[in-house]
Here is the input.
Amino acid sequence: MTDIQTNSVRKVIENSVCLVTGAGGTIGSQLCRQIIDYSPKKLILLDICENGVYELQQEIFFKHGMHVPVTIEIASVRDRDKMEIIFERYLPDIVFHTAAHKHVPLMEHCAEEAVKNNVAPTLNLAETSIKYNVKRFILISTDKAVNPLSVMGATKRCCEMIIKYFASQGGCSFITVRMGNVLGSSGSVAVLFKKQIESGGPVTVTHPDVSRYFITIPQSAWLILKAAANADSGQIYIPKMDKPVKILDLAETMIRDSGFQPYKDIDIKFTGLREGEKLHEQLFQSSEYTELCQDNSVYIGQLPQVPKNFMRDLKSLIQLAQRNDSLAVVNLLHDLVSEK
Here is the structure.
């Protein structure tokens, strides 16, 4: 990172009230660790699970002292009334929305929960941000939102479309950061491989040709801060990455780095692609205009305008999810995000 980039982030974060949803998660917690270095007026750690944010708060206190303005809110982003109370209490300047269900195969069987936890809160938080004059709202998205095959990917595409819709309303700047798999995050394949190697194998790979884009945890947080500081409303920030990594190559490398020989000391077993999984992911799709930023580290993209009836259909989707009509949710969800 350059001094210019660091200064641009400091200018936005310093003396600002920052709220991070999903603050106890892998990306959320790393984001909080970096935010606190830029002297926010207040940092609000919001999560439904208490242990992660408590440990993070204690870590920050240990490193920076008890005087740092960090506070915890145990709350669900699904609870709109509670979000209203929190926004009214703190009047955040910047909202970083990282909270989401992210596990692809699980969400294939829980489509209504993916909508309840990913789509509805993004809509509610966006509307609440406008009401309470938030300056910047940053959505954390995934490459699985590009031409989505899975329920999880489709819900995140829906969230991107929500951000695009509100970006056209003026006032708050609505920005999306889209990234590949976060290496070392909870649920990461690298974490699974490490456990399998430690137990003597086999290491399980879904398909010999499957590949994924990877970004490290610190890189992901820095990309989010960079977007918060520099992106215009409606833009998507996508890290420029090298070629996607073959998961088989990753497995073999991790086995060797652990002092073993693949297929000899530690076997590799192919289990088949799971429901909702693609063989290869994409960073953007053909309808999105993208260009490299000046330092060639980030693609800056624009989503196409959302369809005329998007908000009407979106609210119907949320109602179907609340009624737990899983089949209807899947049908309408994929219709909502399909390229017309």
The chain has one domain: 3-183+214-241+283-337.
